[in-house]
Amino acid sequence: MAVAQEVHLADEIHGIPVHVCGVGKLNAAIGAHELISRGVTEIINIGSCGSVNHGMGEILKIGRVYQDIDARPICDYGLTPFEDPESFIQIDPTSETSCFSSDYFYDHKQVLKYSDDYLGMIKACNVFDMELYAMAKVCRKHGVALSSYKWVSDDGDFAHWAENCKMSLEKLTERFHFSL
Question: Residues 15-59: pLDDT tens digits?
Fold first, then answer.
């Protein structure tokens, strides 16, 4: 996960160690690589996310993840130059839930600073975060299984993130019958 506050600073959940990578795609990639270097064969990503399509506290299993990258004119928005042209990484084919990962925190009060493509992805995807795409790419490269459960903690307004995050984590622990 990105920050320890997302799990009330717990070191483990049901005997599974918690690894905090830090916020953003670069930190997430480093964190995933550190775990893989230690011999981890499966990563379960849990954490908060934003959404303009789902309500606070809703818990979603992510199926595919998109990235915020703009390398035009070399390739279309969302594609990485000089790699196979894929618009998303599939992490769970049984889930239709989509996540858009960006290094921008979406703030609905500052919509003028974002590109139309970015805003289109915020609306088109079920949720948005700042880490999952990078984790998915590192896991795929190293053949490591990845699953992700996100809870909606904001809609582009960070003012109540901590309390919404706590509420959502409580719902997650009830759903999966564990405690922190």
Answer: 777 777 778 899 999 999 999 999 999 999 988 899 999 998 888
CA gyration radius, the chain: 16
Measure the CA–CA gap between 25 and 67, rounded to whole angstroms. Answer: 9
Q: Which pLDDT tens digit goes with each residue over 95-132? A: 999 999 999 999 989 999 999 999 999 999 999 999 99
pTM for the full model? 0.89
Distance CA(83)–CA(169), nearest Å, equals 37
CB atoms within 10 A of CB 179: 10
Angle between helices 25-37 and 132-142 (to 10 degrees): 30
In angstroms, the CA 33 to CA 135 distance is 8
CATH 3.40.50.1580 fits 4-176, yes or no: yes
| CA 178/CA 123 separation, integer angstroms | 32
Contacts of 159 (CB under 8 A, 6+ apart): none
Long-range Cβ pairs for the range 109-112 (8 Å, 24+): 109/156, 109/157
**Rounded Cα gap, residues 94 and 92, in angstroms:** 5
For tokens 């490269």, what's the residue? 141
Residues in Cβ contact with 120 at an 8 Å cutoff, skipping those fewer than 6 apart: none
